[in-house]
Amino acid sequence: MLYKTRGIVLHSVKYSESSLIVKVYTEIFGLQSYLLKGIRSQKAKTKPALFQSLSLLDMVVYHKEKSSLHPVKEVRLAAPTHSISSDIRKSSIALFLAELIYRTIREEEANTALFEFLWNGFILLDAVEEPFSNFHLLFAIKLSRYLGFKPQGNRSEYNRFFHLREGSFHPLYSSPDACLDEQESAWFFQLIKTDLDQLSQLSFPAKVRSNLLDKILLYYRFHLPGFKEIRSHEILHTVLS
User: Fold this and answer.
1) Within this chain, do residues 57 and 130 fall inside the same structural domain, yes or no?
2) Do 94 and 73 share a domain, yes or no?
3) Is 99 within 8 Å of 163 (Cβ atoms)?
4) Phi/psi zone of residue 106: left (φ > 0), alpha (ψ -120 to 50 degrees), beta?
5) Is residue 55 domain-shared with residue 163, that is, in the same domain?
6) pLDDT per position as a tens digit, 89-122
7) Is 179 helix (H, G, I), strand (E, B) or coil?
């Protein structure tokens, strides 16, 4: 049966000599895999570039319950990007976010709130002007809400240390492996209380930004069983330094 849906490309791999298998987070089916036969051949009307990470698509797809791989009938770019493709800093951020989402979302069912967050977030990344070097930090913190482990914003003069395992601020510092020091906790709190459209209010030096990203990924590992290592964040450390 045919369905129309919006979709966000997260990952693609080559299949045979001329085809692709693409992981897409869709509006009406959640995370799905699609087979694009012959798309890598010279005669193909649809080009592989359409399925780059974080491409926002309008799709007409076949969908059959209990099938793990679905055909695509029609596809077009729904929201062309401009600055992401031309700015190496934004393209590096986009690459990291695509990998983060691919490693964390496993839902094969609709989640309208999550889909809208992702869709609007990527449009904002393309549109946002300087400063945007902290976009990925803020996005990762906001994404955790939809994944079920949003950090609590209970920081106070009494609760000064953020415990990564607990997801909240506590009065006592434990160990560097599971707890942020007082300054790190203050920076982390800034991320918790800042909305994506308030990005310009954040100002972190490059070393602080790199440290916070490492702490956020550690936070994800504590709260997502089986969370695999993110590789693209090393590129961010270099590009955004």
Assistant:
1) no
2) no
3) no
4) alpha
5) no
6) 898 999 899 999 999 988 778 899 999 999 999 9
7) strand
